[in-house]
Write a structure and sequence with these properties.
Elements: H1 25-37, E1 42-45, E2 48-52, H2 63-69, H3 81-95, E3 99-105, H4 111-125, H5 130-150, E4 151-152, E5 160-161, E6 164-171, E7 177-185, H6 203-211, H7 214-219, H8 244-258, H9 262-279, E8 283-287, E9 293-297, H10 301-310, H11 314-322, E10 323-328, E11 331-336, H12 339-369, E12 378-384, H13 396-427, H14 440-447, H15 453-462, H16 469-479, E13 486-488, E14 506-511, E15 514-519, H17 523-528, H18 533-540, H19 547-550, H20 567-583, E16 586-593, H21 606-615, H22 618-627, E17 631-634, H23 635-642, H24 657-668, E18 675-677, E19 681-684, H25 687-858, H26 862-885, H27 905-924, H28 929-945, H29 952-955, H30 974-979, E20 986-993, E21 1000-1007, E22 1011-1016, E23 1022-1027, E24 1031-1036, E25 1043-1048, E26 1060-1063, H31 1067-1080, E27 1088-1091, E28 1094-1099, E29 1102-1111, E30 1121-1126, E31 1129-1135
Parallel strand pairs: 2-16, 3-12, 3-16, 24-27, 29-31
Antiparallel strand pairs: 1-2, 4-5, 6-7, 6-12, 8-9, 10-11, 13-14, 14-15, 17-19, 18-19, 20-21, 20-26, 21-22, 22-23, 24-25, 25-26, 28-29, 30-31
Helix pairs in contact: 3-4, 4-5, 5-6, 5-8, 5-12, 6-8, 9-10, 9-12, 11-18, 13-14, 13-20, 15-16, 23-24, 28-31
């Protein structure tokens, strides 16, 4: 693809309207048409970009295009939105100027797409890195979320922004994004309950019903059929080119990237479903006995499902739809609501619920994308706000939207037309004043503090008595009748009395974009934006995690009788803040134009484009730019930037800055008609002159870089040579030293050899003398030893002979005694044998007599007796055998003898059970009361944690000590012991986790029968004391960590500072004792133990998710680490168990 190298090369038509000849409205429109027909949708007016909506995709937004426009001069390439984005980003990064990009135009002109292109370009050209990419991705993915909840299909635009958005993107000194802040303006919440013909409700309703899974819809109690919901229009439910199911998946993914927790996403979807259910609630009239009308709900099924989604009692919300309570000082008056009032209350609740949910989404996104660093930031603002709207039926929303566009047009006039002309006068530049329309008079008509339309609307809303839209119109007719931009049929101005195009209940304002007819019906109600207090209080009673945050005024403890500010007042204040913010930044303009009303490609409607060009003031802008100068800059920064182009000003200019600039321009031979000197600035007429200066500066910078490189390389080579020379000297010195040392060692070695030979000869001579002397001494010793040995052997033979004689006597005596004993034994055996024979013979004889006597009786009952005898013998043998084979007395010994016969199965099992119970009783009787309490705690710990927490098995063998600090004996904790009145059940040191960085602070943890106390470890000062009734639950993970969270009951006195996130080495014992103490206390409920790897902890006003993950290997060994991932997430890494 050919790259255009200049704004004037190969150009279709004229790329910059400043260069258009001849200049007229017809030639202006014809130039836009010519470029539009050739797919050139961007055109310049100086530094302002005109963007035509092509209503189709064009191949001009590719990554290659991004690189083509990156770091290029604004006028160097053909007009493109990327050029303006690059110019703004370069000025912010290089010149430290805060920027803002103002995107204006009618609804459907492509403002939202233009803001996306600017943000995607900035994200593509700024720095890289893991953190930077994460920030960029979060900033970009915030768009799909806000579009789903804030955009809708209208008759002019299939993706119309029904809210205003201004995003401040914050950068560091390098130009890398740090975060952002989003501000939203006036969500069109009336669209929730009613949509004009041919339009849809907000995208998210259709995306949820089309893209959510069946399981999700079942949980939300929803059906995919759009026709079942009164708040969804059916004639435009399907839009060509919009895939609601795919967009829903995109939104879910974007919410995850931005940082929404899964429970937060579920809560948001529940509120969206509740709005749909709310629209299906219908009322029927009923008459009371006193004659007053009241309303009742027809079918309570949708009300029941909505209450289940939000956690509200059905009777509470039903009463809020039927009655209204009015409070005045100390009086309360309750009145019934008729059917129309009930429908008004229902729609008011739906609008407030959705608009507050949208505001919460913006706040939640800001929490995730806001910059964490506290240093000064550079800021680029992108304004994408609703365009000027003229419908058949214009109401309060269109009035507010058009007022905002008037203010934007006013700031455009001030910053581009009036300010530019006034600057030429201030600087003394010759200038011919150009007339243009200043819409300040229209802004004053709307926002004047005394006679403005908004002021009168607020005054009418706050006035006591009967207030209607008619009384408001009467006031406008009285005060604004003579205003040249206000028209009304009933005003005192007689020229409109016969204007039949102006209905009686309407007024007309001549805006800068044309006349708009406003119907006053609903102005007062929409400006009041009232929600009955009964509904707010009913919403506050919900158990849903978000509802209490969305309806804080429903808190009965904080009833405020002061009337809330009106919608018009709030919007006027927010627009004023926006205007002041924009005036502090350097503006960059994108003026969006839609070529036709059919939303079709290749169609250019002259009249429509001409109308937009007129009210946008594009012709006046061209005339000012043609008559003026394209670039201006103060003398000091101009000289500082271009002084290297002249030898007389480089590197330092000692005189005044203006003289330096004059010398510089003269040396460069720039024609004098191309620039002018003001009092404090130089003005350059043609952008080509500026481009010439920048090109010369770029070349000069390259030359300077080459010179710096040359000097640096020379210095580097000289330094290297000097280092080599110094190294050579050092090496030579070391070598000479080494050679002398080597020579010295050789001489020393030779001397040592000679000395060793001499000493060896002397040593051998001395050795021979010593050996001879030693042999003489050994000879004497040997002779003496032989003599002593002879004497000892002779004495030994004598002793042996005496011992042999004594042993012979002992042997003879022993033999005689044995003979006598054997003879006596044989005699006793013979006598016993004779006695046994007599007894056996007698027994046989007696048996014979008995058998003879009882033989006749025995034969009759022989079988039964034998059976009984056998059974008795078996049982006797069984019990005697059981006595010898009984297992040990240990209760854990599960051994038991096998049963010998099958008929003993029941007896065998029962005996085993009785024996086990008996030995358990014997075992328990050995325990003391303290041991019983310990085993009861161990048993309760098993019931709570067994098979649920990985840490539990390692705690089974550890005894529960309780007081690990010996709080009563240790003098260090004497002050703390005196401060605690009750008996201390447990005292240990725990770590209190800080949500800011995930680090722990040591704290003393005390548990008594009534409260939990946290004290400073060093001073012993009590930091927090929580009564046990204020504890709602304790949350722990399933991992092997020691983290636990003490969850406090909402509304309790202890819950002001939020929950406690602690860690301890004795987690099992602490939780068990807490559970036992809470269960035995008379005034407290059963303490819930929540075991999960992800739970929420309330820190003051914020909820933080604590998530536990397993890590294969941690940097600090096997210890647990806790890190903060973002403002809403603490991640605890637990080493994986082996």
């Amino acid at each position: 693809m050919e790259v255009k190298t200049s704004l004037l090369d190969n150009m279709i038509g004229v790329g910059d309207m400043v260069l258009l000849e001849p200049l007229s409205e017809d030639s202006f429109i014809e130039n836009l048409r010519n470029r539009f027909d050739h797919n050139e949708i961007y055109t310049y007016i100086g530094s302002v970009v005109i963007s035509m909506n092509p209503y189709r995709s064009l191949p001009i937004f590719t990554p290659e295009k991004v690189e083509e426009y990156r770091n290029r001069n604004f006028y160097e390439l053909s007009p493109h939105i990327y050029a303006l984005a690059d110019e703004a980003y370069s000025s912010l990064r290089d010149q430290d100027k805060d920027q803002c990009i103002l995107i204006t135009g009618e609804s459907g002109a492509g403002k939202t797409e233009a803001s996306k292109l600017v943000m995607s370009y900035v994200a593509a050209v700024c720095g890289k890195g893991q953190e930077v990419n994460k920030v960029k991705e979060q900033l970009l993915q915030s768009n799909p979320v806000l579009e789903a909840f804030g955009n809708a299909k209208t008759v002019r635009n299939d993706n119309s922004s029904r809210f205003g958005k201004y995003m401040d993107i914050e950068f560091d000194f390098k130009g890398d994004p740090l975060g952002g802040v989003i501000s939203n303006y006036l969500l069109e919440k009336s669209r929730v309950v009613k949509q004009p013909r041919g339009e849809r409700n907000f995208h998210v309703f259709y995306q949820l019903l089309s893209g959510a899974s069946d399981d999700t819809l079942k949980k939300l109690k929803l059906d995919r059929d759009f026709s079942k919901y009164n708040y969804l229009s059916l004639d435009s439910a399907a839009v060509n080119g919009l895939d609601d199911a795919a967009n829903f998946r995109t939104v879910r993914n974007a919410m995850q990237i931005v940082g929404f927790m899964e429970d937060e996403v579920q809560s948001v979807l529940e509120l969206v479903a509740a709005v749909l259910k709310l629209g299906n609630i219908e009322f029927k009239p009923e008459s009371r006995c006193n004659g007053t009308d009241e309303s009742r709900i027809k079918d309570k099924n949708d009300l029941k499902e909505m209450c289940e989604l939000l956690g509200i009692e059905q009777s509470v919300l039903e009463r809020a739809f039927s009655y209204r309570t009015v409070e005045a000082k100390l009086e309360k008056v309750s009145t019934t609501l008729n059917v129309s009032q009930a429908y008004y209350a229902r729609d008011a609740l739906a609008k407030n619920l959705y608009s507050r949910l949208f505001s919460w989404l913006v706040t939640r996104i800001n929490e995730s994308i806001k910059a964490q660093a506290k240093t000064r930031h550079k800021v680029m603002g992108v304004l994408d706000i609703y365009g000027f709207e003229i419908f058949e039926d214009n109401s309060f929303e269109q009035f507010i939207i058009n007022y905002c566009n008037e203010k934007l047009q006013q700031i455009f006039i001030e910053l581009t037309l009036r300010e530019e002309q006034e600057e030429y006068v201030r600087e003394g530049i010759e200038w011919t004043n150009i007339e243009y329309f200043n819409n300040a008079i229209i802004c004053d008509l709307i926002e004047n503090h005394q006679n403005g339309i908004l002021a009168m609307l607020d005054e009418e809303c706050l006035r006591p008595g009967t207030v209607t839209d008619e009384t408001f119109l009467d006031k406008l007719n009285t005060i604004c009748a003579e205003h040249q931009h206000f028209e009304s049929r009933l005003s005192k101005n007689s020229k409109f009395l016969t204007d039949h195009s102006l209905p009686h209940s309407c007024f007309r304002i001549q805006h800068y974009a044309g006349k708009v007819l406003y119907r006053t019906e609903g102005f007062v109600d929409k400006n009041n934006d009232l929600l009955y207090r009964d509904l707010s209080q009913a919403m506050y009673k919900a158990t849903h995690s978000l509802i209490k945050q969305l309806f804080p005024e429903g808190n009965p403890a904080k009833v405020n009788l002061k009337r809330p500010p009106t919608a018009g007042f709030q919007f006027k204040a927010s627009v004023g803040t926006l205007m002041r913010n924009l005036q502090t930044k350097n503006p960059n303009y994108i003026r969006c134009i839609k070529p036709n009303d059919k939303k079709a490609a290749h169609i250019f409607t002259d009249s429509l484009v001409r109308h937009q060009a007129r009210y946008l003031g594009l012709m006046e802008n061209v005339r000012v730019r043609r008559a003026g100068y394209a670039f201006r800059q103060a003398y000091e920064p101009c000289l500082e930037r271009y002084k290297m182009l002249c030898k007389r000003t480089w590197p330092h200019w000692r005189g005044p800055a203006r003289e330096g600039v004059e010398v510089l321009m003269g040396d460069l031979q720039v024609p004098t008609e191309e620039y002018s000197y003001g009092r404090s600035k130089i003005f350059i007429r043609n952008p080509r002159t500026l481009f010439f200066l920048e090109e010369r500066r770029r070349q000069c910078l390259q030359d300077l870089a080459t010179l710096i490189q040359k000097i640096y390389r020379g210095w580097k080579c000289r330094s290297h040579f000097l280092l080599l020379k110094e190294s050579q000297i050092v090496v030579a010195a070391w070598y000479r030293r080494f050679a002398q040392q080597k020579k010295y060692k050789k001489i020393k070695s030779a001397t040592t050899v000679m000395q060793s030979y001499a000493r060896g000869w002397q040593a051998r001579k001395l050795l021979r003398e010593l050996k001879y002397q030693k042999r003489c001494e050994e000879a004497v010793t040997t002779i003496s030893a032989f003599w002593h040995g002879t004497q000892a052997r002779r004495e030994l033979r004598q002793l042996k002979e005496e011992a042999r004689n004594k042993h012979a006597v002992s042997v003879i005596w022993a033999g005689w005694q044995g003979t006598k004993a054997r003879r006596e034994l044989r005699r006793l055996k013979e006598e016993a044998r004779r006695k046994h024979a007599v007894a056996v013979i007698w027994a046989y004889w007696q048996g014979l007599k008995v058998r003879r006597e009882y033989r006749k009786f025995f034969r009759a009952n022989a079988g039964k007796k034998i059976y009984d005898f056998t059974i008795q013998r078996i049982m006797q043998k069984y019990f005697l055998g059981l006595k010898s084979t009984t297992p040990s007395m240990s209760p854990v010994d599960m051994n038991w003898p096998t049963r010998p016969y099958r008929f003993l199965d029941g007896v065998h099992t029962e005996l085993r059970r009785i024996f086990h119970l008996w030995r358990c009783k014997k075992y328990r009787s050995q325990f003391t009361e303290e041991q019983k309490a310990v085993y009861e705690e161990k048993l309760e710990a098993s019931e709570i944690f067994k098979d649920k927490k990985t840490l539990y098995p390692s705690s089974v063998s550890q005894p529960f000590k309780g007081d690990y600090l010996e709080i009563s004996k240790n003098p260090k904790y004497q002050k703390l012991s005196s401060a605690v009145d009750e008996k201390v059940l447990l005292a240990d040191v725990v770590n209190k986790i800080n949500r800011a960085n995930g680090k722990g602070t040591p704290r003393i943890f005390l548990l008594t029968k009534k409260s939990v106390v946290l004290a400073d470890q060093k001073t012993g000062q009590v930091k927090a004391s929580v009564p046990l009734p204020d504890l709602s639950s304790v949350s722990v993970s399933t991992q092997s960590d020691g983290f636990f969270a003490l969850r406090l009951k909402e509304g309790s006195a202890s819950a002001i500072k939020g929950d406690f996130l602690l860690s301890s080495e004795h987690l099992i014992e602490i939780i068990t004792k807490l559970h036992r103490t809470g269960a035995t206390a008379a005034d407290s409920e059963q303490l819930n133990i929540d075991i999960s790897d992800e739970f929420l902890v309330q820190f003051k006003q914020d909820k933080v998710c604590v998530k536990f993950i397993q890590a294969a290997a941690l940097k600090n060994g096997n210890s647990v680490s806790c890190k903060r991932k973002n403002n809403r997430l603490l991640e605890v890494s637990v080493p994986a168990s082996a």
